[in-house]
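Ops channel
N.P.: pipeline sanity check, posting one input/output pair.
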């Protein structure tokens, strides 16, 4: 079994109401990336945020943050394309990555492709209604093919997010077409509590994802539980050869009465993996497991 790849998902669009340790600004994300690396994370995923927590998808945010992360460790960088906070056309959604690719100091290692479209309205459990009713995470086939072309052009690794089986089936078609290459790195995104666009964060929800892994292609899979406690599944994932993507961006993790930091969440995953006999992959070992290409800086 491969060593386990652990990704720190440090902030997403999470507020500090649930956990005050969610990093927003570049300096906070850079510090968290280093702390998570030191505990065993091989990948860091983050979203640009303003000091009040609002999304900030300006290229300048990503250039500063990537350069700061690079200067401190070899952790692999996985930025966002902006999720629903950047509802532009395909070119517009990839614009920040195009800027990042102008220098080795600011280039990431992954770029994400969420391989389908879903309703991502947030449920308000106190009031028994949706807070929004028209939030669609749109990823058309043409947009995804544009992303795949640009990602391959730059020698980045596509980070293929599957919210449900239909996304995985689109990944399979892209593999058949040669739009994507093996091994495909697939993130099974499960969702709980306030968002229902993914599979439930249960054993059955995960089994339904893995049952539809593309046949005849080499795949490596990791698991997210957006807005749910992934520790309910980490033992199963570790034992079944999967990888783990986790952090305060997804869930306000606590240890008893104490709010955990991202680094403490990573340390808990590492301890569990080691207790189950599975070693943790370094950034260099992750590059090897995923057969990551060499990044090409824009001319
Ligand atoms: Zn994200």
């Amino acid at each position: 079994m491969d060593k386990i790849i652990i990704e720190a998902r440090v902030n997403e669009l999470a507020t500090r109401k649930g956990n005050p340790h969610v990093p927003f600004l570049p300096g906070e994300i850079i510090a968290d990336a280093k702390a998570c690396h030191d505990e065993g994370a091989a990948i860091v995923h983050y979203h640009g945020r303003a000091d009040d927590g609002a999304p900030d998808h300006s290229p300048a945010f990503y250039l500063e943050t990537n350069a700061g992360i690079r200067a401190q460790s070899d952790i692999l960088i996985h930025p966002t394309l902006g999720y629903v906070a950047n509802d532009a056309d395909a070119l517009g959604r990839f614009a920040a990555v195009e800027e990042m690719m102008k220098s080795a100091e600011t280039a990431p290692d992954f770029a994400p492709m969420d391989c389908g479209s879903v309703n991502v309205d947030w449920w308000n459990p106190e009031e028994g209604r949706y807070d929004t009713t028209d939030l669609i995470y749109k990823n058309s086939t043409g947009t995804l093919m544009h992303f795949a072309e640009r990602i391959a052009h730059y020698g980045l690794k596509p980070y293929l997010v599957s919210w449900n089986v239909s996304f995985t089936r689109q990944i399979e078609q892209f593999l058949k077409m040669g739009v994507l290459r093996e091994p495909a790195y697939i993130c099974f995104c499960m969702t709980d509590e306030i968002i229902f666009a993914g599979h439930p964060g249960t054993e059955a929800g995960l089994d339904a994802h893995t049952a539809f892994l593309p046949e005849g292609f080499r795949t490596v899979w990791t698991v997210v539980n957006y807005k749910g406690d992934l520790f309910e599944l980490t033992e199963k994932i570790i034992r079944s050869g999967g990888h783990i993507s986790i952090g305060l961006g997804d869930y306000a993790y606590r240890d008893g009465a104490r709010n955990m930091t991202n680094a403490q969440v990573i340390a808990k995953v590492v301890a569990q993996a080691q207790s189950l006999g599975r070693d943790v992959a370094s950034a260099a070992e992750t590059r090897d497991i995923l057969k990551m290409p060499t990044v090409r800086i824009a001319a």
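N.P.: looks fine end to end. The chain is about 35% helix and 20% strand.
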